[in-house]
Write a structure and sequence with these properties.
Helices cover 30% and strands 25% of the residues. The protein is an alpha/beta fold.
Length: 253
């Protein structure tokens, strides 16, 4: 079924390599991911996950090909990409409200001139969708880790992206915040049929929420469904264990 909200069908990555001088940071990466799916990138620290993300965002030069295809296998020349970083670097003492931040992502009007009623209402609706409506007038620097990530996620889907990239977006967030965040991401996947690429170390949660998993160690060493990847020798060698489902349907190491 083709959803009007999604122009992207799939992303093909072929033989992608990124070099730092003569050293390959990542090499010969081959993978594809699709709209309507949550694909998780996992691996040790330094395995090249963030480097791959930066290549996709155009922030790192690379060799190989990244191709975006529509539902007729035609190439998409202009892709709308949303992005949530691991951390947002800003001066927490700056008196910028969540409303100021959200409005600045879509309007060029200076924040000191105030916000029109229509802008405030639009921002409020978006924040409400992410259980963050109560944060509208709160200072950005006063937000908890989980609150900030919900605000960043709300900002990342305006305009509605074809591809949403999340680079370890819940680092430092407590367990309740983690589950809330992943449930919202899964909801976005189903509601808008967008392609979502997520870098994460939360192996238990992504086993529950991801459609596909790509395990990296400077290149792709395993990919498939969570059950397929988590039972591979590559996964065991990387993390030192495999996941096994017990009779109570909880995952033990």
């Amino acid at each position: 079924m083709i959803h009007n909200s999604c122009g992207l069908c799939k992303v093909n990555i072929e033989n992608l390599s990124v070099y730092d001088g003569s050293e390959a940071i990542i090499h010969d990466v081959n993978m594809e991911f699709h709209c309507g799916e949550l694909t998780a990138l996992i691996g040790r620290n330094g395995s090249g996950k963030t480097t791959l993300i930066k290549a996709l965002l155009g922030e790192r030069k690379h060799s190989g090909k990244i191709t975006y295809l529509d539902h007729s296998d035609g190439k998409i020349k202009k892709l709308i990409t949303g992005y949530v970083p691991q951390q947002l670097s800003f001066d927490k003492s700056t008196p910028v409200s969540v409303l100021d931040f959200m409005a600045a992502t879509v309007k060029s009007r200076p924040v000191w001139l105030g916000h029109k009623k229509a802008v405030r209402e639009a921002v409020q609706r978006r924040l409400d969708d992410f259980s963050a409506g109560h944060l509208t007038d709160k200072s950005l620097g006063d937000l908890s880790g989980g609150e900030l990530q919900r605000v960043l996620l709300a900002a990342a889907i305006e305009p509605l992206p074809d591809l949403l990239i999340l680079d370890e977006p819940v680092s430092g967030v407590d367990i309740n915040g983690l589950d809330t965040f992943y449930r919202k991401v899964a909801e976005l996947r189903h509601k808008y049929h967008m392609a979502i690429l997520l870098v994460s170390h939360d192996l238990s949660l992504i086993k529950s929420y991801a459609d596909r998993i790509v395990l990296m160690d400077r290149t792709v060493i395993a990919q498939g469904t969570p059950d397929e990847v988590y039972q591979t020798e590559a996964f065991r060698d990387t993390f030192g264990y495999t996941f096994k489902e017990d009779e109570s349907n909880e995952y033990s190491l």
